[in-house]
Amino acid sequence: MAQDLARLRAFLQVFEAGGFSAAAREHGKSKALLSKYVTDLEDYLGVRLMNRTTRKLSLTRAGEDYYRDVSGLLQQLDELDASVADQTSEPHGPIRISAPRNLGETGLAEAIFAFMREHEQVSVDLRLEDRLVDLAAEGIDLALRISAMPDSALITRKLAETCVAVVGSPELIARTGQPKTPEELRGKPAIIDTNMTGQSNWRFVGSDGASFVHVDGRVKVNSPLAAREAALAGLGYAVIPLYLVREMIDEGRLVRLFDEAVVGPMSLQAVYLHRRHMPARVRALIDHLADWYAQRPML
Prior knowledge:
This protein folds into three domains: 2-87, Arc Repressor Mutant, subunit A; 93-160 and 267-294, Periplasmic binding protein-like II (D-Maltodextrin-Binding Protein, domain 2, 3-Layer(aba) Sandwich); 164-265, D-Maltodextrin-Binding Protein, domain 2. 42% of the residues lie in helices and 26% in strands. It contains nine helices and 15 strands. The strands form four sheets. It has a five-stranded mixed beta sheet with strand order 4-3-5-15-6, with helices on one face. It has a five-stranded mixed beta sheet with strand order 11-8-12-7-13. The longest helix has 27 residues, at 61-87. The chain starts with a helix and ends in a 5-residue tail after the last helix.
């Protein structure tokens, strides 16, 4: 098997270098050995792969087809070798992470920095911003998102359930009357978080199944923290992750509505690109986050 691979690599090296002498110099092998490997390969296949002259080396039609297939095969083998070696060693290298600002500042950063303390050869570029990033275009290794549904174009792994609350300030409730059911939100001022799936169409799940309520209001924001500030200011009812408003509810600064109706379901998800071989450092971080949030199953 090893000799078969050596013959395949010799074939690629000779063609890509433009000749036997150039390949011998580039790869530190003897010209005679490379010539033997290529000849042995042609004899085994029963077909000529290369046209050899004193001035030029070119591929035959069969050689062109064979080169295309073999180059892809060897590239996959090299990637697999690198992946196995990577996974058996201590995680090392950079990880570029994207996450919502509020999530990063309320626990995620702590989890990531705990991982870095365990793996001193890993470096992190943590980007906290309230927008949906393009992982491929921006070179993101891992995104953390709170979403109702996974993106079918990406790989996702659920890390934790997230509870979402509908809240309003006591002053707003005194002014508009407290909604007793989700349907009573229609016509009342609402704060729209444009990052939310559905935006102005809020989804509720109760004992009778799912329903949608269309809401409207003067405030549109792309951040749950900004939505929280608007809710505290009495500008409308808002849908906000419970972990961001739990303290305000306990203090009486916000009132939680509809205990029996739940907006969602939503979850914290690790999101990453389809890749044949994920770097060990990224896989290790995802496993670490899964363990971290397993101890905190509800955000």
